[in-house]
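User: C-type lectin domain-containing protein. Structure?
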Amino acid sequence: MCKIKTVLKYLLLALELGFLEGSRFRCDYMSTNVGWFKYHEVPLNFHDAYLQCKYEGAMLASPSTAEIKSVMMELMCYASAFSFSISILTGIHSTFAKGQFHSIDGIPLAQIYHEWAPFEPDNKNNAESCIASNYKGKLSDVSCDEPRPFICHKKHINIDPNDCGTTDPDYRYDKRTNKCYKLHNKPKRFAPAFFTCSAEGGHLAIINSEEELKVIHELHALYPPNKIAGHYDKNSAFLGFYYEEDVADWTTIHGETLEEAGFAKFQEGQPSNSTTGEYCGAVYRDSFFNDVSCHKRFAFICEKSPHYPEICDSENLERQANYTRICKHNFEDKGKSSPGKTNNPVY
Ligand SMILES: *[C@@H]1O[C@H](CO)[C@@H](O)[C@H](O)[C@H]1NC(C)=O
Ligand SMILES: *[C@@H]1O[C@H](CO)[C@@H](O)[C@H](O)[C@H]1NC(C)=O
Ligand SMILES: [Ca+2]
Ligand SMILES: [Ca+2]
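Assistant: Predicted structure:
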């Protein structure tokens, strides 16, 4: 039996102490007295894991205190049938300067109580600037490029989620479409733009009607070119469609043709497929669609449902419990290194 009880104990303790009063966050996170946590089972490298957590409104978790470490070990236990063979990526890294390990929020490794796995750290090939943890909480230095599962952690909630179900104030609700929109005016290429919207809980915007185009134009107008820093084409912004070569047609990122999606008008003279090819979809700030290079940076527009991800109250234990899985391993049997047991001052 994994220690479901331990997590419940945390939750109950937190309630008793009133730590979580009024705390609301994404339901895909689990609430504890040391913040909200989410286990990501799809492995990513350090850079992408860092971004994924950041865009979710959280931070790549580091076992920086006994309590946090304990929750992380519990989550590993729930999350994977293979938890004794996997290791997760932590937020402890030295990517800024070799050997200078610290958590994402700046706590030096020297100030974090830690134990190393056998023969670690070894800085293999002088290329190990990230730290992974096994299910016992033992650390190894590893390559930051190797994808691993990871945990995101939201420490403090000082802002309540808005109408758009996010603490990001740049998402604006529009009642005409019952959707939320955000224009990112720090330009990115198509793939990172897709990643960003997705991790924020939305997707690159898809225009389903003339009215929605109007909504997008109004949003774009809030960011006039002379108010945006940087040198790039500020008249177009990426949307969620692209040219699918195999079907020789423009397709939304949700697999429909533009006609099926409900709006398909390109600006006159577009699609132009200029220079080296333009296979990604964009919209002019005051006109219709444009085809642009997927590899050039543009502003981009994300769209999200105000109801996804769902927002949960930290008090709603039953609901929270549904987001964890049953652990298949008997960690108790494995002896004194049972995670969270030895060094947990909370109870
Ligand atoms: C777009 O332009 C590229 C580069 O000039 C060319 O190779 C490609 O065939 C064009 N694609 C279409 C669909 O016209
Ligand atoms: C939790 O899951 C169980 C079983 O799937 C379901 O019956 C129950 O209603 C769920 N609870 C909440 C609060 O969603
Ligand atoms: Ca190593
Ligand atoms: Ca074009």
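Residues 273, 276-277 surround 2-acetamido-2-deoxy-beta-D-glucopyranose (ligand 1) (CB under 6 Å). Confidence is low (pLDDT under 50) at residues 15-20, 321-347.
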